[in-house]
Write a structure and sequence with these properties.
disordered N terminus; four-stranded antiparallel beta sheet; alpha/beta; Beta-Lactamase; Helicase, Ruva Protein, domain 3
Length: 406
């Protein structure tokens, strides 16, 4: 009944797919994984999130201890705890990821040699196949945007002083984690890092939906010492309060209810970063999270993301001494709209196999005049629509959404 209740009340589609896979595993782990993968493929997830979700499905279905998707020297996604040098009880399964005949990455699964779950090669190849397109897209756009020193930010930086200052602050926060061990760093940078949050302390990101909050959280994660460990995102606002505690901290055996013990998402993400979206004041969970911050058991870095700074004060996650990154809405970054639009035209043309090279001056003027209540995410969706509908190499006003043509 508990599982069925979660299925009925959880609005996050990817979480529902994970739950359905748990039910299907009674019929066989390979079939459960492939069925869940087919459902996941119907969702329009951005490439990095799709890779993370596929990896999570694969690791759960194969009873893995650790899993990773690697492209070149970059870890795109990780799950669980990596092998330690003296650990001889694990076996490693490695599957190449091919885009056509071109290698674009590797799927790596580490599991207990004594595990009763034995995934077939066919099922692992079935997981690697859908990963090829998002990995190709991630590689194709690598390096197309301006970089931020010491921050692996994979979005458009732009010229907005308010936005650039928050990225620079994020870089300092990320580097604080390793400041004591990295040699050759300038004294001024170490001094700035020392004035910021303590190593691995909590971080709060404040911004409206669609401003790139998740992208910034990932940048902080990938720029610090936890880069190869799991990056876990939990949308607390779509999980009922009475279920959120189990989701975060797990639950023990309950023989009467027929429920087996299950570790929480925080424990599974040990060594990595956990991003909590919209942990509102009603949850009452921050005291337990604060204990984790103080004891590092489990060893995770907690990043809280909110659209309402006042609500963050109510949870206790935003308090004196906690670093805060505030992302400005797109309407306050108007000089960046043209650059963002060009980037999304290139990305969308690649994604949808179109030959669109840009926007007409009239279309660009409409973009720059609009207030963008959905921020960068809404702009991306508008550009994708224009690229798909464009009849030649230049998208015009008629290809934009109705609200932009009025």
């Amino acid at each position: 009944m508990r599982l069925l209740r979660r299925l009925a009340m959880t609005a996050d589609a990817t979480e529902t797919i994970n739950l359905l896979m748990i039910v299907d595993q009674a019929q066989g782990s390979d079939a459960a994984m492939l069925n869940a993968l087919a459902a996941l493929s119907t969702l329009r997830l951005e490439p990095t999130m799709f890779v993370e979700q596929v990896l999570s499905l694969a690791c759960r279905a194969t009873n893995a201890i650790y899993g990773a998707v690697v492209a070149g020297e970059r870890v795109i996604a990780a799950w669980g705890r990596p092998r330690v040098a003296q650990d001889q009880e694990r076996e490693t399964l490695t599957v190449p990821i091919l885009f056509g005949k071109t290698p674009v990455g590797v799927l790596r699964i580490e599991r207990d040699r004594q595990s009763h779950v034995r995934p077939s090669r066919v099922s692992l190849d079935g997981v690697a196949g859908p990963l090829s397109v998002p990995l190709h897209r991630l590689g194709a756009h690598e390096g197309q945007t301006e970089t931020v020193p010491n921050l692996l930010f994979r979005g458009v930086v732009g010229r907005s002083p308010a936005y650039r200052s928050q990225l620079a602050k994020a870089a300092r926060l990320a580097q604080t984690q390793a400041a004591g061990t990295v040699q050759g760093r300038r004294r001024s940078q170490l001094a700035k890092a020392a004035r910021l949050a303590q190593t691995d302390g909590p971080l709060v990101i404040v911004g409206e939906c669609g401003t790139g909050r998740r992208l910034l959280a990932r940048a902080v994660h990938e720029s610090g010492r936890r880069a190869t460990a799991p990056f876990t995102v939990i949308h607390c606002d779509v999980v009922p309060d009475d279920l959120l505690a189990d989701e975060l901290f797990g639950h023990p055996d309950d023989e009467r209810a027929g429920i087996k013990a299950r570790p929480g998402r925080l424990a599974v993400a040990g060594g990595g970063t956990v991003v909590l979206f919209e942990l509102d004041a009603r949850s009452g969970l921050w005291p337990r999270l604060e204990a984790i911050v103080e004891t590092h058991e489990p060893d995770v870095r907690i990043i809280t993301v909110t659209s309402d700074a006042e609500a963050a004060w109510g949870t206790g996650c935003l308090r004196p001494g906690v670093p805060v990154l505030t992302l400005p809405p797109l309407r306050e970054r108007r000089p960046d709209i043209a650059e963002l639009a060009r980037f999304f035209v290139r990305a969308s043309s690649e994604q949808f196999s179109r030959d669109v090279e840009g926007l007409s001056s009239e279309a660009l003027a409409r973009l720059e005049a609009y207030d963008w209540p959905g921020n960068v995410q809404e702009l991306q969706q508008a550009i994708e629509r224009a690229v798909v509908l464009a009849e030649d190499r230049i998208a015009d006003i008629c290809h934009l959404p109705p609200e932009l043509r009025e």
